[in-house]
Amino acid sequence: MEFKIENDNSRICWFCKKGRHTECMKKIPVDAMSEGPHDCAFDTKLVECQCVH
Fold first, then answer.
1. In a domain, 37, yes or no
2. How far apart, in whole angstroms, are the C-alpha atoms of residue 46 and residue 25?
């Protein structure tokens, strides 16, 4: 069985995923590994919600 990914849902906020576009967050917090010395260090950055509504 094959799955085809139409778009990257990781850049769409929770509200838009649920169809609640009037409550769109506009910016989504995204965790990424930091450049620090520890494997458990994370940096949180904000990215724009990519939903087209």
1. yes
2. 11
